[in-house]
Write a structure and sequence with these properties.
Layout (H helix, E strand, L loop, with lengths): L27 H15 L6 E3 L9 E4 L13 E10 L3 E7 L6 E8 L1 E7 L5 E7 H14 L9 E5 L2 H8 L3
Antiparallel strand pairs: 1-2, 2-3, 3-6, 4-5, 5-8, 6-7
């Protein structure tokens, strides 16, 4: 079921999300949350990923939109209990926004490469190395799971112009 995206100011976005016992990953409750996350993300023209707290669930889960991958069946789209095990020392200030900080944008310093360990939606542990946009997503979404929003780290933070908002809304 599609859920509304929780907006800045709600307590759930500032909490450290709950660890999910690996044996409970395949439970109806967790699987339902994952489905709701996929459905909620699919309604957003400009969304590339979403964390469980963004739909009001304080669990360590984030999902990535399948359109980011050429062959999504071979890529991990669901990350449960994710941790960044390594990240490059080389960083870059990258332009960022967030579905829970609607219509704000700014630049955040992020590592250019990451390696994440997590569980998939079937309870299988995996390790994934990434660079570019996916490394950026790893960091942004894992911040969500620790109660950190991009606005906490951003420089040149600003509200989008109405023209920019209209471009996003009319992009579907």
């Amino acid at each position: 079921m599609k859920r509304d995206i929780v907006q800045m100011g709600k307590k759930v976005l500032r909490e450290k999300a709950q660890f999910i016992e690996p044996g409970k990953i395949t439970s109806d409750k967790i699987q339902s949350i994952i489905r709701d996350m996929h459905e909620s993300l699919a309604t957003q023209n400009d969304g590339v990923a979403i964390a469980a707290p963004q739909i009001g669930e304080s669990y360590q889960i984030f999902t990535v939109a399948p359109f980011l991958f050429e062959n999504p069946e071979k890529e991990h789209l669901v990350y449960i209990n994710p941790t960044i095990v390594t990240s490059s020392k080389k960083t870059k200030w990258l332009h960022e926004g967030c579905l829970s900080c609607r219509w704000k944008v700014g630049d955040v310093e992020r590592s250019l490469q990451t390696t994440v360990e997590a569980y998939d939606e079937h309870g299988n542990k995996f390790t994934q190395s990434a660079d570019g946009l996916l490394a950026h997503i790893h960091q942004h979404e894992i911040d969500h799971l620790h109660g950190i929003l991009f606005v906490d780290k951003a420089r040149k933070l600003r509200d989008m112009t109405q023209e920019e908002i209209d471009d996003v809304l009319n992009d579907k």
